[in-house]
Design a protein that fits this description.
Two copies of one chain form a homodimer. With about 140 residues, the first copy, chain A, is mainly alpha-helical. Chain A has a single domain, classed as Arc Repressor Mutant, subunit A, CATH 1.10.10. In chain A, about 50% of the residues lie in helices and about 5% in strands. In chain A, helix 4 packs across helix 6 (about 105-125). The longest helix of chain A has 18 residues, at about 105-125. Chain A is elongated. The two termini of chain A are about 15 Å apart. At the A-B interface, helix 1, helix 6 and helix 7 of A face helix 1, helix 6 and helix 7 of B. The first copy, chain A, binds a DNA duplex (30 and 30 nucleotides) through helix 1 and helix 3.
Amino acid sequence: MKLSSRSRYGFRAILELAVGYGNGPIQIKTIADREDISNKYLEQLIAMLKAAGLVRSIRGPRGGYTLAKPPSEIRLDEVFSTLEGPLVAVDCLEHPSFCPKCTDCVTRRIWSEMQDAVLNVLRSKTLQDVVDMSKGTDRDANYTI
Amino acid sequence: MKLSSRSRYGFRAILELAVGYGNGPIQIKTIADREDISNKYLEQLIAMLKAAGLVRSIRGPRGGYTLAKPPSEIRLDEVFSTLEGPLVAVDCLEHPSFCPKCTDCVTRRIWSEMQDAVLNVLRSKTLQDVVDMSKGTDRDANYTI
DNA sequence: GTATAAGCTAGTAAAATGGTAGGTTTATAG
DNA sequence: CTATAAACCTACCATTTTACTAGCTTATAC
């Protein structure tokens, strides 16, 4: 249950877009440099975010990416499930028919509680909330390896 | 962030031991048959649980495994961190020195909240609690694929 | 029409996952 | 004391996932 680089990088990238929201597009190169992520790898991560409708692109010179909607309308769980796939999940949580005894399975209930706990954290926050959290602290402190 | 088979199988196995606690040792073969897990693979998982001091073994014929302490004294987070490694973790949560800006890093705070959310669920429950949950439902319902 | 940036597709080394296989030790029942 | 039942290694293996790299194509502002 370690967080993948995919999620960490992707999250940092979309956070950059959230911080710069309203000031025109930001280029992959800019983000990659600022966050010290491989340019080409980041390209793929942003493509995922775009496919999920969280991010919008402008091609050509002076192009780049912006959030598809204001930071206050993007919840963290949307970002995460895009990058990481279903959270904490066990197959039988989504497809009860998967397992014959799903209805009163104890272990399943535990997995479910774990999943809900994580989702509650992520659903309760938007990108705007995170941007606000970082105000007051050093701008460059948006940083996780 | 999908739960590995390691965790799912291992958890089901230790739960078998919890249910049978006080009635002598249970053999790997028995658990493997009952839970439909590969014998040899389960052997390795139980070895992890033993190395962590959660399980005790008796060798020779009529041997097998028992919990090392009563089910009420084994919290789920102990089981999980044994099987799965650090939960949800990002390296900088454990080793703040890992990242130069750890002290006031926003993303780190989010990861930390996620981790705490999961840990709180798991820390608040012991194997006994899970056994009690399953009472009343069909015995064979301790089942997750 | 050229530079700039996104977009696409394929490949790839390294690690993790989910096992198998086969032998070695320890204890017990007879 | 011997057969056997179990735990206890240790090594290997196929597949999948991860975290990239490489190189080409397409759109567009100037």
